[in-house]
Write a structure and sequence with these properties.
- There is one protein chain.
- The protein has 123 residues and is mostly helical.
- Helix content is 73%, strand content 0%.
- The chain is flat.
- The two termini are 44 Å apart.
Length: 123
């Protein structure tokens, strides 16, 4: 977790840190110009790199096991139509919910216009 401290002047930052304007890169220089002390580490440990790689590998193996059932039971055609039919049904349900939501918002606007005083409508 990185913390950022706002200071009133860049000179105060230079006094409190060991970073000088001579040995900083462009991003640290920009932070110093804005009055922030650069404290974010821009390096990854071996553990972090391995964690990200295993997350990517986990996603790929999870997808292959999810597609395995569909491919073995219905083949590529069954998998294709299964995804398309379910996508169409979900899209229809989403559009119905969206229609009900928008209709309710329009009804609330009509209620507001008809039941609120004139002075509040001009805002």
């Amino acid at each position: 977790m990185s913390t950022v401290h706002k200071s009133s002047s860049p000179e105060k930052i230079e006094e409190t840190t060991s970073i000088t304007r001579d040995n900083v890169d462009a991003s640290d220089q920009r932070l110093l110009d804005l009055g922030y002390k650069p404290e974010f580490r821009r390096e990854m440990s071996l553990f972090g790199v391995l964690g990200i790689s295993f997350c990517a590998i986990g996603i790929l193996t999870g997808m292959s096991s999810a597609f395995q059932t569909g491919l073995f039971s219905g083949g590529p055609l069954g998998l294709f139509w299964g995804w398309n039919v379910s996508r169409s049904l979900f899209r229809f349900a989403f559009l119905r919910l969206l229609e009900r939501h928008l209709t309710g918002m329009i009804d609330m606007q009509f209620f507001h216009v008809s039941h609120c005083p004139q002075s509040s409508r001009d805002l």
